[in-house]
Structure formats: structure tokens, C-alpha cells
């Protein structure tokens, strides 16, 4: 009998059960009642002279994930089980042992009082609680039933032993979120990336209705400190850039949501899955089909900072780099490169005379303010023209930078005289009136329903007034919606391709040197911004290929572009994000590398 077997036996577990393997245990004991959040029935039996109740159950790693690491609604003090045992053991008795000591409850010595308090997890904290008084003014007492759980983590799952019975009332509030509740909480957080704990609890009203409060999900989330803790745990990796494997190549993604946020043994980590957003500039071989929406954690890697060996094992796919992707400011300043839009012809051509009039006539008093809401705004705010006689208007509503550039190109090509007076209308009154007309056309049906609901008269002036209000409630042009995917890629690539003393040998163009050519023999280092490369003495041996290097690529340079998935034209994400201070795009230049060591 092993040491572990003896310790279990003396703790009151029948020897016959200790010697059985998990599947045998579940077959011989009597099924009685379920444990909280456990999908399958647990097993329970009473034995021995002490009359103690022991619950025995083997949980698979999938069940551990679904039950949030076997969460229970009791205050517990976790503990280790010594240095022996391994999570990769084939049998549970040789697995890694941990313990949970239940702290039970604090109650009142007044028999009619029903207040039940959750104890703190430290002895000093419990003493502090007992030194206080109950809400009814009576003395508090700590009920300790001596209940413990012992868990053995092994390759097949977790062997769970629960010993003892709680001889006291249940706690009056729950302590953990169920998997469905956690999913709802995470969804609200992702829809409100800038919201803090207080805002998430309160919810808020918006033009589109009331935004859901996390407090309606569970009473657990009524506590602001608990919501703060959940946010910190959730946002630990969420939003980070990573590399995901598709076939034999790796592509950039943004991490959105993991199926589980608790720590798991190494044997289970690859079973955790992440919902991801693939970088829109990825070019995948069509033979691989569409990339999946979620990825196993074992198929994800971070930037592998200073990890030379691991970088040499990874072959990179093809994508448009962050330094080759136009930023919002570039798109607007280079508006003549925007796509031509037939929709804008249909919307704006009937109004070309009024747009030209706004461009050519500086006297605002000759216009009817009702027909030109932007003029009404200028007169009311008493704005002054700039040096070229233009009025700068900082509103563009939910018009993206791509739409902004399209409308600017249409204005320049169709309004007589506009192409020679760009400074007068770009970001100014005439172009913003064009924005108003576009919004009025696209949202007319929605605006009309609002007017009918208020029993007000519907006419063209009212339509323009509502379109102008829609422009004003969104972000100003100087604070465009953050391109979170591009910001994420920039941060990831800066760490992937930095060549500096801090990066060490791992920064010296190490990707794939032990594995093989990158997709289509692509030079992944071409055009790296010079601020990412600094002088560093290096050895030529660092650039030697490993013995298993494959000089073949699944997709050679002779492959036609038709056999690659089209990279999506970079555009802003559709989800609402808070305005952020913009960072300058990295400038790609020819760089001078460090000196070779002899």
C-alpha cells in the first residue's frame, strides 16, 4: 500500500475504493445527488463508525472546464498536498494533490436571526468579523464543521473526494458565476470596452435603448469590487495580439474570449479554446478554407519575446504588415485614392447646386438655417472663419474614415471648383453638409419612425435636423473610432521583429530557421520600421539554418494570386470603441543593422 493510499485509508476512505480505478469507482458506488454545477451525477455513500459522508467522483477535464474548476458556493481555504504527484500521471493515486478546507459560515447567537455571513479566508480576518456584531446587535459565532475536499489532478481528469457534512444553514448569497452567467458577463464587457465596474453595474441609456446591466445576470455582480476583480481576470489576455496556426503556417490574431478563465493543469491547457479575430490583411491558401472562429490554446503563441528556440520552429504565413497598412489620417489626406461610389451619385447629385453655393458664398445670412443645419450650428455657436474663409466643423457621426474619403473624393470631382479649393471644404462646412445629406438618406426610415412615435410633423427639414443631430452625437473627426485590430497588430509585430540588445539573439531574424521557408518564400522582414532595429553585435552563426530546415513552401512564388484568399481592404472595425489618442504609424525605411562579430 502506497503512502498516498495509507493516508486516504486512515482518513476514512474504505480501502476497496482506494484501490479501484475511476471507472470502477463510478460503477460500484451508489448514485445519490448532484453537486453544484456538475453536469453528471456525483456519488455519495456513508460508512464507518464515525458516520461521515464521503462524496467520490472522477471529473474529466471537459467537466472541469464547464464547472469553472469545480467551483462551490462555500468559502474555502486552498492548500497543497506536498511535492509528490504529477498532473501527467496515468492513475489518479499518483496525481497532483490539492485540498480545500471549508470555512463554513458565521451566524448569530440569536435563534430568530437568519443572517448568515461568509467568513473571510484568513484566520485574522475571521477573528475581526467575530469581534463585530450582527445586524441585529447580537454576538456572532463561527460554525466549523471540519469539512474538506481532496482533489487529485491526473491525465484523465480530477478525482474529487468530499468528506463531511455541513450542519448549518446555507449561505444566503452565491459566490460564483455559472458558465452561462460568465458568458453573458463577458459579452457585456466586450460590447462596452471602456466601461468600468460602476458603469457595468448601473447600465446606461442610449439612443438605441437601455444597455444591459451586469447586475441582472447574478447577484454576485452587485458587488463593485467583485465586478472589478472579474474585469481584471477577463482582460488579462483579452485584446492581445497572438499568432495562430492554420496548417503549417502561423498568422496574427486578436484574442477575444477564452472558453475558461481559470488556471488549469498543463495536461488540460491545450483543451482551452479562444475566440479570435484574424487580422483582416491575412492571405490564406484557398486549399485551407476559411479560418475557424475559435482556436485551441495549443495552436496559439504570443510574440515569443527572447525565445530564440521557439521562434526558429515557426513558419509565418502571408499578411499585410502594420507598417504597410494605411492609417485613418492617411486615408483622409489621400482621399483621391478612395473608391468611387455609385450610391453617392444617387444621394448627392440632386443637391450639387446647394453644395456649390455653400462653397462659393461666404455670407451665411443668405441661407435658410432650417435647410442647412450646419449653418444654424455656426450661427448659434458664433464660430469664426479661419484664414482661408472656411468654417471648421468637427463632426462626422458614424461615418468611417473610408466613407469620409469616398465622400471627399466625390465632392472634389463633382462640385465645380472644389478640386482647387480643398483647404476650404475638407473638414469644413460644405463637406459636412454633404455628410448630413448622406446620413439623412441612409437613416430616413429610422428617423421617420421616431417622428411618428412622437406625433410630430414629418418633412424634409425635420429629416435634415435629425441627421445633423446624429452627426453631432458621435465622435468628432479628430478622434476617430480606434482601429483596435491595427493597433493590436502593430504592438504584436513590434515585439516580433524588434532587433535590439534587449531582444537578444531571438531578435536577429530567427523566425522559421529550424522549420523552413515562410509562405510563398516571403521575406517577412522587408520594410521593418527603423525604430524597431538598433545596433547590436551579432554572430553569423545565429542566422544558420537548422538541419531540418525545409526549403520548400506549400505555395511557391509561381502560384497565381487567384489561389490565395483575398486580403480584406483595411477598414475600421464596426464595433463601438471609445475615442483614443492616436499614435503615429511606424515609418518604414531602409535600416542599418548592427555589426557582425568575428
Tally of DSSP β-strands: 21
Head-to-tail CA distance between termini: 62 Å
Q: Beta-strand percentage?
A: 15-25%
Number of domains: 4
Shape designation = flat
Strand order of the largest sheet: 1-2-9-8-4-3
Structural class designation: alpha+beta
Helical run tally = 20
Low-confidence stretches: 1-52, 266-270, 475-481, 555-562, 566-592
Report the C-alpha radius of gyration, rounded.
32 Å
Mean pLDDT across all amino acids = 73
What does this structure look like?
- The chain is of the alpha+beta class and 598 residues long.
- It has 4 domains: 122 residues, no CATH class; 46 residues, no CATH class; 198 residues, no CATH class; 152 residues, no CATH class.
- The protein is flat, with a radius of gyration of 32 Å.
Considering the chains and any ligands shown, give keywords for the structure.
598 residues, alpha+beta, 6-stranded antiparallel beta sheet, 6-stranded mixed beta sheet, 20 helices, 21 strands, flat
In short:
Residues 550-559 have a biased composition (Polar residues). The protein is of the alpha+beta class.
How does the SSE layout of this entry go?
Blueprint: H1 3-10, H2 15-19, H3 22-28, E1 43-47, E2 52-59, H4 61-66, E3 76-80, E4 96-102, E5 105-108, E6 116-117, H5 123-130, E7 140-143, E8 148-154, E9 157-163, H6 179-191, H7 197-202, E10 204-206, E11 209-211, H8 224-234, E12 241-246, E13 249-258, H9 266-269, E14 273-278, E15 282-283, E16 294-296, E17 300-301, H10 308-312, E18 315-316, E19 318-319, H11 328-333, H12 342-348, H13 352-360, H14 373-381, H15 401-414, H16 422-425, H17 429-442, H18 444-453, H19 460-473, H20 484-497, E20 538-539, E21 596-597
Parallel strand pairs: 13-18, 20-21
Antiparallel strand pairs: 1-2, 2-9, 3-4, 4-8, 5-6, 5-7, 8-9, 10-11, 12-13, 12-17, 13-14, 14-16, 15-19
